[in-house]
Amino acid sequence: MDGTDGAPVSAEGLGLRGPRGWVFRGVGFDAEPGTLIAVEGPSGSGRSCLLLALTGRMRTTEGHAEVGGHRLPGKLAAVRRISALGPVPGVSELDPALTVAEHLRERALLLRRFAGPPRALLRPRRERAAGARARIDAALDAAGLDTGALPKAERTAVRDLERLESLRLSVALALIGRPRLLAVDDTDLGLSPTGRAEAWELLRSVAATGTTVLAVCTEAPDDALTVRTTTVRTTTARTAVPGAGDAQEGAEHAFAETGRA
């Protein structure tokens, strides 16, 4: 893909309080455009909620953040417009019954419907289709997904994909919209050591094009060559307090707050 104007991301004293207590608290960091940010912590530590907060999908209750020049929690809609979600359980999951082609076609149609300039609709249908196909192919290439190598090529159902292939497809779908910030949840979940290495290499390659990448994981990569990697540690000991609710409760609260914004 062509170089992307990535979004700088920063946070200061960022926290989210749910019905039973703090989901995460005291998060602070400063990342330049094109940084690979690894949000590290055990399941239930609020890491997914932090990801959703930094992409404008949740309203935090303490501190502030800034994404691409948009201050949070005030500018949620603006941050949503410049960010895209890869796989996030319960939010942006792939439909196992759909094929790879169906997912790609659906995303391209949604992009044209909600993001394309009105004058683009005046172009001949063949020209619009060629443009959409070119954008899809560029996203697949950036995600390292060779559809020709799949059991039934693009007609392969998502349920038949390996975990790493599924991750690559989710990333490709997100990249079709050319976001300034890409967010990926559970990056290393269910992957072998080799698979984890490939997943991180994929995200590094996306960041290398300029797109800022925010990736949730259990264990952040320890690679001296990845000099721009920023790790935001969201372990229970550092970001939660005794009696804090789990991430789902925090999510329900934060989504409700966002909906009233």
Write up what this structure looks like:
There is one protein chain. With 261 residues, the protein is α/β, with parallel strands linked by helices. The protein has helices at residues 47-54, 76-82, 100-114, 125-143, 163-175, 193-208, 236-239, 247-259, and strands at 9-18, 21-31, 36-40, 62-67, 70-72, 83-85, 181-184, 212-217, 230-233. The chain has a five-stranded parallel beta sheet, sandwiched between helices. A four-stranded antiparallel beta sheet has the order 2-1-4-5. Strand 7, helix 6 (193-208) and strand 8 (212-217) form a beta-alpha-beta unit. Helix 4 (125-143) packs across helix 5. The longest helix has 19 residues, at 125-143. The protein is globular, with a radius of gyration of 18 Å. Residues 118-122, 223-230 and 234-261 have low confidence and may be disordered.
Write the topology of this structure:
Blueprint: E1 9-18, E2 21-31, E3 36-40, H1 47-54, E4 62-67, E5 70-72, H2 76-82, E6 83-85, H3 100-114, H4 125-143, H5 163-175, E7 181-184, H6 193-208, E8 212-217, E9 230-233, H7 236-239, H8 247-259
Helix pairs in contact: 1-8, 4-5
